[in-house]
Amino acid sequence: MIEELQKTLKSRWETFTPSEQKIATYLLQNIGGIAFETAASLARHIGVSPMTVGRFLRNLGYEGLSELKDDLRGEAPWLPLYKTPDHLADASLSEGLQAEIRDLTNAHALAHTPEWAAIVDLLVKAERVSVASFHHGRFLGLGFANLLQHVRPRTRFVEGSDGAYIDMLLDAKPGDCLVLIDFRRYYRHFRLLAEEAAARGIPLVIITDTQCYWARKLTDHVLMIPIDESRAWHNFGPAMSLLSLLIGAIARRQEQSGMFERIDRITRLRQSFAGYLEAPPLDDPPPAKSAGGNKNAASKRRSKRS
């Protein structure tokens, strides 16, 4: 059903009015979360009236948003999660859970876009990948770079402590790639680095939210997570999910390139430098202490003292 709706929107694009194109654009970018929208919330996100939304859907052959939502929900695997158990039917909890599911669904939907395939291909083939992220979301880029190091060589997180990002920009070599990650409110370095990389012709990947209007002007390699204005501080959950999906997609492409041998070598290096705590074997539990055993041990200690 989703693919059918996407084809319909794209094939009829030229017949839509400007307002209808805004609605169609929102549906294409957020199709995974439409099942959780109301006509009012949909209109508010798009910037049109609820009547315009209803008229557009009737033009597509639906009686209204409810019929479209029923078609999109279908037998979705997340549907049981959407229905909050009776004993947890607190209104705020139910609303929060629905919002979490909607945000994660939107993030996962990005893995089926043409941009996704192109970004995975770029990150697999790049000679060197530099990652930078900023402000509250700095940990996202740091974690992404650390994990990406396991599945491909020459990956690093760039601190920018030199004040000029010299290695990333000035000393960039052919085949290098830059990944920038940031969300509203955007850090000043985020846009400055993106513009500088684009001006120097350095392949650029931007992972951000749908309010970052300037990202697509600088690169085609953009992944935008739909932003929920009422949940601005909750963008990190879907962002972490999206980055995990990206690591997985790159790992699958790298399976034939000695990835597992690389992971094994990394593990052995870590064992040499830091080591790992070893858990006791599951099939060899420590012997149980019996009451008699304790008495015998106490008797032996008394004998030694005497």
UniProtKB/TrEMBL annotation:
The lineage of its organism: Bacteria, Pseudomonadati, Pseudomonadota, Gammaproteobacteria, Lysobacterales. This is MurR/RpiR family transcriptional regulator. The keyword Transit peptide does not apply. Residues 277-306 are annotated as: Disordered. It comes from the Bacteria. Keywords: DNA-binding, Transcription, Transcription regulation. InterPro entries: Homeodomain-like_sf, HTH_RpiR, RpiR-like, RpiR-like_SIS, SIS_dom, SIS_dom_sf, WH-like_DNA-bd_sf. Residues 3-79 form the HTH rpiR-type domain. Pfam families: HTH_6, SIS. The keyword Transcription regulation applies.
